[in-house]
């Protein structure tokens, strides 16, 4: 099957999936969980094959580690699927109900987006997690996993497809895309694919954003800042900066640049240097910073670099205004924090920094779907439309308008025979209505 | 100034505009209205110049007519601006409030998208309407109007810019783009422009969707359907079809294809033919339709043609399923209606037809922001993300997450020292917070 055929089949399945009952979707999720449970041995065997091949191909250690999908991880994703069963169906919610005129009622009802294209790197658990979220939200999907996990992905997608179709879902609702050329062709199928969600390296996401006319939900950079205002509570500075930088350096929400108000710089930088260097964090600083602590000079490039490593750039600023300006110039709109004792200053900072998450007196590492309490996270988005920040299942949803009439014509409103009332309606639209 | 400089200036202004108070925005709207009032003579003079030039250049009649912007129309847009003043500020609304842990509170707050690029054809009233909506919602904008209205647009954008900046808005928040090459360059400025809203011909919108990596809010086609089920109330058929087709044929929400259940075809088609032909509607039909009424044959192409004219294609279908399938294959996801006495059938139709608006027993012409009670309409979107259907001011909005802490680190949650509570919070985040 060509990628065009696959996309067409996914689109066809999506139209059925959009109207499937909550019960059937939950039944399919249960079937998926049971089938994965039953096929553990097969999955592990495929995964070990991938591992051996990747090891031979000298895949870097961290990627090799993320590739492993054995007993405990499989049990975790199965648990994740089962927890989705008990969640409320996001399809069919009444978001607005309005009487346009007596007997002419307008409802805005949540519905799935349609067909989602998901491209992710090595982690096979992502495949299961994403498939189950798409299923629960009624979206069909085209999946492209990393080639290092080819065998595992093939086995997983077959098990997921077959078990759920047997449970009653439309055939072809989940499709595995395997070749790089198919992925490139996929970017042009905007007639069939409604949204792309890339989960991978920054350069990879950037490439997709620039090469597809299909909307993309994702983030290419996570250049996060902490600004320490002159009245910041000294007790919280070190723990928060340390946590933001070192709690998990590879995360997109870890801090890359520290901005320090000139008035407080000499009292906080020496202590910060000590605790950060104890954790092997390499520091680079602006000229004024280097007058206070002995660190390497920061280049202009440092301000727009996402280290994803034990490295932090430090700049001294004259004011909150300067900090905001620096962040809006060099930041990536991901997560930026202010440390200050003043509610007014925090409020100004949070209103004026253009980022999906703006924090006051806490670690940038909180910027995450699980910590925000979204249950599942589709990804983090730095886009300015649809969904921004950590995105839960609502990122896979859109709505449609349903207008229920009794013979009304627009002409009868032009002539004055009928009049618009535009009154809110109390009742929700029942899904059987 | 190059288009890049203009976009950068708009971006800079947007960062200030996003945090401007409701009072200042309303003051600026009042100033805009007053300045337009005071400059009526100048506007009319510029508009007459455009009209004379366009008339000489043989601009088609309907476009010439849309170009006219004189006393009454100017008064109407001024009234529109003033009605915006009394509307609630869409910026700063609390959409979600959740305690992540005691003393660590998460808020989701509405905010402007940022910089919007708007490209529209001849109607100068659109310029004023769009500028005032962007102002109220805190968005900066780059505007490109039709060249036929060049003089009018130049005068209007100058008056709007100068009066609002004098009232306190950041300079450069609204910028006029004048040349075609600047518009093409604009499509590549995704670093500075967050959303494109084209209002114009289908081919024009399609061109933009295919040639820009900036998200587009709009619709390229309006191929709307009415499906007459076998149990439809005979009384409502003719009025609804007539209204949907002829109440305003140039509208994107007028019907282009009629689908009729085979069981009811012979009893409804002759009457429909009579009333439609009385209104000079040209009919084309499938073979089975032509066995009942004497109309020209419909070609395969007819099913995917938006006539925007006194023409209607008719197809006989075997079932509701067939009707749904036809619509999902040939429709444009704009507006599709079913006429049926059965709640169950209407419910199945509305769940399964993939369109932004799905109607039961009423005219497709109701698909419109004003009729839906949205006050102002930014446009109609057939996109599957962000905003769909008639889009009011909420289409210009996104949100940011604000997290208010008191020294929390993520590490303290990993160690079990702190725990996530994820409790809903009662209070809204005050805008001064």
UniProtKB/TrEMBL annotation, chains A, B:
Pathway: Amino-acid biosynthesis; L-proline biosynthesis; L-glutamate 5-semialdehyde from L-glutamate: step 2/2. The keyword Cytoplasm applies. GO terms for biological process: L-proline biosynthetic process. It catalyses: L-glutamate 5-semialdehyde + phosphate + NADP(+) = L-glutamyl 5-phosphate + NADPH + H(+). InterPro entries: Ald_DH/histidinol_DH, Ald_DH_C, Ald_DH_N, Aldehyde_DH_dom, G-glutamylP_reductase_CS, Glu-5-SA_DH, GPR_dom. Residues 8-278 form the Aldehyde dehydrogenase domain. Pfam families: Aldedh. It comes from the Bacteria. GO terms for cellular component: cytoplasm. It is found in: Cytoplasm. SUPFAM superfamilies: ALDH-like (SSF53720). Keywords: Amino-acid biosynthesis, Cytoplasm, NADP, Oxidoreductase, Proline biosynthesis. One of its GO terms (molecular function) is NADP binding. Its EC number is 1.2.1.41. The keyword NADP applies. It is an enzyme of class 1 (oxidoreductase). Belongs to the gamma-glutamyl phosphate reductase family. Catalyzes the NADPH-dependent reduction of L-glutamate 5-phosphate into L-glutamate 5-semialdehyde and phosphate. The product spontaneously undergoes cyclization to form 1-pyrroline-5-carboxylate. PANTHER family: DELTA-1-PYRROLINE-5-CARBOXYLATE SYNTHASE (PTHR11063:SF8), GLUTAMATE SEMIALDEHYDE DEHYDROGENASE (PTHR11063). This is Gamma-glutamyl phosphate reductase. The gene is proA.
């Amino acid at each position: 099957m060509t990628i065009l055929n696959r996309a067409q089949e996914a689109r066809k399945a999506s139209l059925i999936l959009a109207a499937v009952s909550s019960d059937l979707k939950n039944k399919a999720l249960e079937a998926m969980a049971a089938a994965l449970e039953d096929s553990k041995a097969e999955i592990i065997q495929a995964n070990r094959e991938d591992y051996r091949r990747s090891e031979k191909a000298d895949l870097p250690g961290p990627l090799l580690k993320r590739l492993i999908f054995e007993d405990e991880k499989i049990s975790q994703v199965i648990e994740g699927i089962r927890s989705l069963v008990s969640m409320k169906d996001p399809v069919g919610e009444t978001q607005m109900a309005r009487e346009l005129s007596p007997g002419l009622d307008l409802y805005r009802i949540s519905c799935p987006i349609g067909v989602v294209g998901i491209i992710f790197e090595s982690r096979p658990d992502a495949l299961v997690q994403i498939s189950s979220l798409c299923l629960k939200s009624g979206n069909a999907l085209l999946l492209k996993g990393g080639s290092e996990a080819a065998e595992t992905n093939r086995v997983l997608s077959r098990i997921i497809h077959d078990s759920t179709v047997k449970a009653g879902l439309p055939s072809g609702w989940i499709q595995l895309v395997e070749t790089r050329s198919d992925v490139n062709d996929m970017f042009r199928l905007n007639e069939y694919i409604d949204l792309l969600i890339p989960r991978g390296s920054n350069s990879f996401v950037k490439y997709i954003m620039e090469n597809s006319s299909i909307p993309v939900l994702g983030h290419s950079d996570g250049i996060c800042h902490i600004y320490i205002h002159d009245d910041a509570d000294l007790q919280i500075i070190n723990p928060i900066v340390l946590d933001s930088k070192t709690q998990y350096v590879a995360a997109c929400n870890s801090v890359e640049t520290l901005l320090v108000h000139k008035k407080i710089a000499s009292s906080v930088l020496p202590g910060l240097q000590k605790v950060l260097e104890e954790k092997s964090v390499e520091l680079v600083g602006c000229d004024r910073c280097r007058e206070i602590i002995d660190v390497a000079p920061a280049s202009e490039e440092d301000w727009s670099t996402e280290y994803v490593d034990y490295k932090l750039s430090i700049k001294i600023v004259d004011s909150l205004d300067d900090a905001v300006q620096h962040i809006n110039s060099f930041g990536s709109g991901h997560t930026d924090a202010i440390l200050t004792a003043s509610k007014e200053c925090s409020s100004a900072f949070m209103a004026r920094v253009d980022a999906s998450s703006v924090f006051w007196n806490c670690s940038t590492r909180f910027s995450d779907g699980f910590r925000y309490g979204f249950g599942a996270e589709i990804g983090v988005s730095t886009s300015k439309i649809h969904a921004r920040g950590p995105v839960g299942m609502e990122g896979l949803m859109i709505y449609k308008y349903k207008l229920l009439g009794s013979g009304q014509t627009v002409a009868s409103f032009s002539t004055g025979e009928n009049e618009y009332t535009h009154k809110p309606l109390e009742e929700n639209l029942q899904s059987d209505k």
